[in-house]
Amino acid sequence: MGHNLPFVGYGGAAGLSHLEMAGVMTEYSFPLVCLGASAGGVDAFTRLVRALRPDLGCAFVVITHLRQTPTAMPEILRPVTPMRVLLITDGMLIERNHVYVIPSNCELTLQDEHFHLGEISKPFGWPNVLTIFLKSMAEHWMGMPVAVVLSGAGGDGSDALNSIKAADGVTFVQKRETAAHPDMPQTALATGFVDFELSPEEIAQELVRIGSEKRAP
Fold this sequence. Notes:
Oligomer: single chain
Shape: globular
Number of helices: 7
Low-confidence stretches: 17-25
Strand order of the largest sheet: 1-10-9-8-2-3-5-4
Helix content: 25-40%
Order of helices and strands: EHEHEHEEEEHEHEHEH
Number of strands: 10
């Protein structure tokens, strides 16, 4: 089993997100799970998505660092899950039990219940597309925000984990021994804002628990 930091439950009071506790309840108040990776991400994404139940009532967003070539992640993930796997387009509505993949060479943010695609604002140096989306998700998503940092070089995503926790979300990193490139998980762990360090399959099991708790009456 992976290493778990002290953890008392999902979300804030009664397992609610910060917006739910503020009384902002809509049909879109379900967990939004962001899966972020770079180098070694194909293996991690595939293992995790394959282990997910298709009826969790969550939505999943796959964030990669591709810039030069179109992403093949929809074609890679469709054979391993019965959930619909879609390449994100600007303005696309977020629905439960779907897997959404960021296009290459784009930044992704949220506007209400929809995705918004924009141009890369940091064309040089280590990419920060995961950090940008996580911060947007923490601020704007009506339900519980969940961040999953998987295999990759650099430290993308780490600077947003405090925002996810402040929004009563849950944070995961891939167990370093199971990651082809452990830099992103290691950098995330160093922030002190990580709830769980688990293998991709163990993360999927914990996401099942999150989905079950959020659907409970």
